């Protein structure tokens, strides 16, 4: 009976869509092909080179200091690699204070300097072992940061000192695969069933089972979502742009990133943004067993809920890859798996104008916009896109708001 209702709903949607004003097509659920290798997207360009800050005199442990702007403020991110024998808290704090002072002196226009101090021995990039010390230093709080000592670290709420947790290695290779279309690994019949549910969701809106493909298309409300948060350079820029526009969003956070930068998660939550789960290590889940899938989701939930004190309702699989096992685990955890209707491929580094045009062309009532937290061009076009959405009469908000305003017959899953 349920399948019959889905078929009927899909047919009604097809008829109404034919009579309605045409919109850009939705990202259709597709099967995962055996042996598939993720290629570079057509036309994908390397990211723009970020400008760098040079310190005089140089500090040997500083690998690089990059900075970026969202059109309103500038933020710098400093990568500092210290010898393993110097990773004691006293040295880390002293070195962070030295770098913060020198960076603001070298570029006074900065609003914030974010510091990430790693052991040079085990540094393996942003997806590798966690840093030993991180801090976000706003210009106005620089004197307070410089006055810190080991006995007063607790008084500065934008600082994290690694407690020595050794949970570094992911159970499967970290995936840098981008979210293009939802990819379902299952039988032909199971793939068709997912496509049918997606079509029905486009008409009905809200959560079907434990899946969210589309909000209520009859209401001028869409969800704004960001994947891969938090990031020590881009998250503060996005927060600032959203604050200026008075827009809330859902941030799908990677657990390991949240653990190293918990103060950004607190900032997001305090300002009304919603925190979602994007696994702990950002791994592809479709080939993992149920226990490994559960561990990735539960570990991320523990980190996120431990920071905010709030339950996590929504989950998005990295790369959009899922399977019957992933569906089952997410359902058992009482969570909703959320997808998207509007993916402008911001990681393709299209240029500001093309990225904004793609965003606007796919914007729709009940839509779910997918962007990434760690893309420079996203921070640069966000304010303009939010203004266009407002002029078109479509309000952008969190997934939770989208579900709460869905049709009365649709209810969201509760954790």
UniProtKB/TrEMBL annotation:
InterPro entries: Glyco_hydro/deAcase_b/a-brl, NODB_dom, Polysacc_deacetylase_ArnD. Its EC number is 3.5.1.-. One of its GO terms (molecular function) is metal ion binding. The keyword Nucleotide-binding does not apply. It comes from the Bacteria. Keywords: Hydrolase, Metal-binding, Signal. The keyword Signal applies. Residues 1-20 form the signal peptide. Residues 220-397 form the NodB homology domain. Pfam families: Polysacc_deac_1. GO terms for biological process: carbohydrate metabolic process. GO terms for cellular component: membrane. This is Peptidoglycan-N-acetylmuramic acid deacetylase PdaA. The lineage of its organism: Bacteria, Thermotogati, Deinococcota, Deinococci, Thermales. The gene is pdaA.
């Amino acid at each position: 009976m349920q399948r019959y209702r889905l078929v009927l709903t899909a047919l009604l949607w097809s008829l109404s869509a034919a009579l309605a004003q045409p919109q850009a097509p939705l990202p259709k659920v597709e099967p995962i092909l055996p042996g598939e290798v993720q290629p570079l997207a057509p036309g994908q360009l390397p990211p723009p080179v970020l400008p760098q800050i040079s310190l005089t005199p140089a500090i040997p442990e500083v690998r690089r200091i990059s900075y970026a702007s969202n059109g309103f403020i500038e933020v710098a991110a400093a990568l500092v690699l210290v010898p393993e024998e110097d990773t004691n808290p006293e040295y880390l704090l002293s070195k962070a204070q030295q770098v913060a002072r020198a960076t603001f002196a070298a570029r006074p226009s900065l609003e914030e300097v974010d510091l990430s101090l790693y052991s040079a021995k085990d540094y393996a990039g942003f997806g590798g072992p966690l840093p030993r010390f991180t801090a976000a230093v706003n210009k106005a709080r620089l004197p307070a940061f410089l006055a810190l000592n080991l006995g007063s670290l607790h008084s500065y709420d934008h600082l994290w000192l690694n407690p020595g947790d050794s949970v570094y290695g992911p159970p499967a290779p970290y995936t840098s695969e981008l979210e293009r279309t939802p990819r379902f690994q299952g039988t032909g019949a199971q793939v068709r069933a997912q496509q049918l549910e997606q079509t029905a969701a486009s008409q009905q809106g809200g959560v079907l089972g434990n899946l969210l493909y589309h909000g209520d298309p009859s209401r001028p409300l869409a969800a704004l979502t960001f994947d891969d948060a938090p990031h020590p350079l881009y998250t503060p820029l996005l927060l600032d742009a959203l604050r200026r526009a008075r827009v809330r969003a859902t941030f799908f956070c990677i657990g390991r990133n949240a653990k190293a930068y918990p103060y950004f998660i607190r900032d997001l939550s305090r300002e009304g943004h919603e925190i979602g789960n994007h696994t702990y290590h950002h791994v592809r889940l479709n080939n993992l067993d149920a226990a490994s899938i559960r561990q990735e989701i539960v570990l991320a939930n523990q980190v996120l809920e431990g920071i905010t004190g709030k339950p996590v309702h929504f989950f998005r699989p990295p790369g959009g890859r899922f399977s019957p096992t992933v569906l089952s685990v997410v359902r058992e955890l009482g969570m909703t798996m959320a997808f998207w209707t509007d993916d402008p491929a911001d990681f393709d580094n299209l240029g500001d104008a093309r990225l904004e045009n793609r965003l606007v062309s796919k914007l729709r009532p009940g839509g779910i916009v997918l962007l990434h937290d760690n893309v420079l061009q996203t921070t640069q076009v966000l304010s303009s896109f939010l203004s266009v959405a407002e002029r078109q009469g479509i309000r952008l908000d969190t997934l939770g708001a989208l579900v709460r305003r869905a049709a009365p017959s649709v209810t969201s899953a509760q954790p």
